[in-house]
Specification:
alpha+beta, Arc Repressor Mutant, subunit A, 3 domains, two-stranded antiparallel ribbon, 6 strands, 13% strand
């Protein structure tokens, strides 16, 4: 048994408990106030573990609601975010993070399919080719099948996107063979395939010819 000898409020939402005047543990304020324990209470090891687990669940749930109020997440992305504190994975949070992410999905606050479609559309507006969009979605925690479905329904082809990128960024960098080589290399690094680059160059050359003819 361990006796709670002091309880100090820290940073507004945390309570630091002193046990037997020496050991210190932190629980969230809500868990502490809703528990049957107070300063002077004695807790068994099992009771202390249950108190800490409940505090972990509450803290993770509050963090999830805060994160989702800021932006969308995939289920996996949210789960990974919940396991971290100040950029580091916190031991013992895995179960609470998985349960909370699942609950957020049940409540409709997390929807991988809708999130994947929105993210894919945003990437295409930034003129990312489909291969790169697929990679971006998977990096955000979207599984490959869901990511592929979101990419397949995008309206523009990679050739169209490559041409639009030429128009917006490389219009004045196509005059010499060296400029064209560097532009092609830059577009390949951006994620475009060489066949789409070649076709975009051809379409761009036709547009430039039309401009000169006018």
């Amino acid at each position: 048994m361990k006796r709670v000898t002091q309880a100090h409020i820290r940073r507004g939402q945390l309570v630091e408990l002193e046990l037997d005047g020496e050991e210190q543990v932190k629980v969230d304020r809500r868990t502490w106030e809703e528990s049957p324990y107070r300063v002077g209470s004695s807790l068994s090891e099992q009771e202390m573990d249950q108190l800490l687990e409940e505090s972990c669940r509450n803290r993770v749930r509050e963090k999830a609601l805060y994160l989702l109020s800021q932006r969308d997440y995939s289920r996996k992305g949210l789960e990974e975010k919940l396991m971290r504190e100040k950029g580091r994975i916190q031991p013992g949070r895995e179960k609470a993070a998985a349960e909370t992410a699942g609950r957020m999905e049940e409540l409709g606050l997390v929807n991988d399919e809708a999130y994947a479609r929105r993210l894919a559309q945003d990437c295409q507006r930034r003129l990312f080719p489909k291969r790169r969009i697929l990679q971006q979605l998977q990096m955000k925690g979207i599984d490959r099948d869901t990511a592929r479905e979101a990419v397949e329904i995008l309206p523009d082809s990679d050739e169209q996107l490559a041409l639009e990128l030429l128009r917006k960024k490389y219009y004045n960098k196509l005059h010499t063979p060296e400029e064209r080589r560097k532009t092609a290399a830059a577009m390949a690094r951006y994620g475009f395939g060489y066949e789409d680059i070649r076709r975009a160059f051809r379409a761009m050359d036709l547009e430039l010819q039309d401009d000169l003819a006018e």
